[in-house]
Amino acid sequence: MKRRLWIEVLGLWLAGCTTLDPYTREEKTSNATKGAAIGAVAGAVVGAIANDGKGALIGAAVGALAGGGIGHYMDKQEAELRRELEGTGVSVTRQGDSIRLNMPGNVTFDTNQSNIRPEFQPVLDSVVKVTNKFDKTNLRVAGFTDSTGSESYNQRLSEHRALSVKDYLALRGVTPPRLSSIGYGESYPVADNGTAQGRSMNRRVELELTPIP
Fold first, then answer.
1. 3-state secondary structure of 183
2. Where are the domains of the chain?
3. How many helices (H) and strands (E) does the chain have?
4. Can you spell out the DSSP letters for 122-176?
5. Could you state, in chain order, the average pLDDT of each consecutive group of 10 residues for the chain (213 residues)?
6. 87-211 under CATH 3.40.50.10540, yes or no
7. To pair with 194 at 20 to 30 A between CA atoms, which of 8, 22, 64, 107?
8. Gap between the Cα atoms of 61 and 67, Å rounded
């Protein structure tokens, strides 16, 4: 009976935790709330195993605080990244507690080059500004190319470009333990390599931000 009661209370609480998306103007459940829900369920299971319904209630509360805290932290970081990167050509997407920045090739590097274009440096400086404020996240830089040229050449170019971005971030103050880089070459295209527009979209660098475990 007690377990059923706390589940119903939790459901009512989650239903009320909606926010207005500033970009779509639609109501949505925040990622912090989703994290709290997941944490609450996980905590409740542990609590129920450890004890009776009382243990489930305590476990749900602890789990909700942990899950909601991470979600709220990433919510705030996402909002600041969107503000800083508006109009730069860099897209910001969110999946769970992961934030991904898609940096298209036309604003990052010249053709067949791995040196960061001077006009792209202020964009990366904006990323540094936010990620140094939210220093409880790791950053992984991934490089991608289109299918023009040999596979081995594209692999090396993607690695060099990812490393260039990683080194730039470190030079601007992001601590090295938070940084990693990887090149995927022409793998994982997001558009058709048979068209000029598609190849342009596939030439990109992605920066993924995830909470430090």
1. strand
2. 2-78, 87-211
3. 6, 7
4. HHHHHHHHHHHHSTTEEEEEEEE--SSS-HHHHHHHHHHHHHHHHHHHHHTT--G
5. 48 47 46 50 45 49 56 97 96 97 92 93 97 97 96 98 98 97 97 95 96 94
6. no
7. 107
8. 10
